């Protein structure tokens, strides 16, 4: 899927404005003119300048009727049920993870997340659960124990080791 440069520019303008609005809430340092909002603010302005350049390029391309004249051009994979299903599965499991990891916990959510992706991408059925559980436990060990990242236990809270 290809988006015209003007569309990308508009999205980046929106993103840079959101950054500029957000950094206004950063605290100031008494006695200094420079605070924590300076660097992200400068980056947001630079991003906005690049976005405007992209928009100009995209609009000029549309005016010439060039290769990127359309606002949106779908690739061949968007006509393949298998590829569209895989794309929807990737988006869906990420939404599933975001919504349920706090309630179910990392281990259950991660196992279901990987199992669903493995099924969609054609991993042998007898390997789906062992791989999903083993990889989730490995990731949990690496982050929770080695890196000390607090991962949610969810329904397994009572048996957390």
Report on this model:
Helix 1 (5-23) runs antiparallel to helix 2 and helix 4 (106-120) runs antiparallel to helix 5 (125-146). The protein has a two-stranded antiparallel sheet. It contains 5 helices and 2 strands; from the N terminus they run E-H-H-E-H-H-H. The protein has helices at 5-23, 38-64, 81-104, 106-120, 125-146; strands at residues 2-3, 72-73. The protein is flat, with a radius of gyration of 23 Å. It starts with a strand and ends in a 15-residue tail after the last helix. It is an all-alpha fold and 161 residues long. It has 2 domains: 2-73; 77-159, no CATH class.
- The domain tally reads 2
Helix content: 55-70%
How many strands appear in the DSSP assignment? 2
Kindly state the mean pLDDT as a whole number? 91
Strand order of the largest sheet: 1-2
As residue ranges, the low-confidence spans are none
Helix run count:
5
Largest sheet: 2 strands, antiparallel
N-to-C SSE string, H for helix and E for strand? EHHEHHH
* N- and C-termini, Cα separation: 46 Å
Q: Rough shape?
A: flat
- What percent strand? under 5%
Radius of gyration: 23 Å
Structural class: mainly alpha
